[in-house]
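DM from R.C. (forwarded with permission)

"hey, sorry to bug you on a friday — could you get me a structure for this? deadline for the figure draft is monday and I only need the backbone to look sensible"
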Amino acid sequence: MSISINTNTVGQSAINAFRSVSDAFDRSLEKIASGKSINRAADDASGMVIADTLKNAALSMGQRGRNAMDSISMVQIKESALGQAVGLIQGIGEMAVQAASDTQTPETRRAIQEDVGKSMQALTDIYKGATFNSQPLLSNVPGLAELSELDLSTMEGAEAAQEAVGSALEVISSSRSDLGARQNQLKSEVSNLGTMRVQTMQSASQIEDVDIAEEVMNMKRLGLLGKTSIFAQSQAANIKGQRVAALLGG
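My reply, with the result:
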């Protein structure tokens, strides 16, 4: 069997093994430090793609949830404005009943009409003031058209006004009912999106998060392998020295 003193294959194998173990130990340490088992594509290319896709979906769900919450706020502002409008219109209805009484005179009916005009202006202000993000919410002004030509200066006009008030309240009640249904729908959407987002994040976590206990055990194993590689290198050096001594007749 030939004896080589220039190439120490045993020592080279020990060095290669040490480098491999050292690299694995560094990657294990990185995983523990970051808390992730996938820190780069080389760790798990397909797993990284799946985890990134899941996280992107979760981010999208989070934004959709925030959009739905904004919509709920917008609906609540609309409904609140219509609730205030109802109070004013009911007050107009009371004045219409008052003006329809045969105890009223033309002068008192004109005074009632002036009060109705003030209520109508307040109603218009409520509709104009209902905005969200500087955008008007009640541009179609539900119920206002039915009240646009009220005239309580005569008994006949006062009686007609009562019918107009009833029609306006029906229109607003229908609008409020639609808004209530929309709000419930949005709340359900927010709840569903929240649940789906948590489940999606959990799925991504299962793919890319590291099992600390398992990785610590892996580090201990690699540490032992590293010590073994160092010992192998020292033994390889001794073997080379022994070969030289043998050649020299030592």
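R.C.: lifesaver. The longest strand covers residues 131-132.
me: no worries. The first helix runs from residue 9 to 34.
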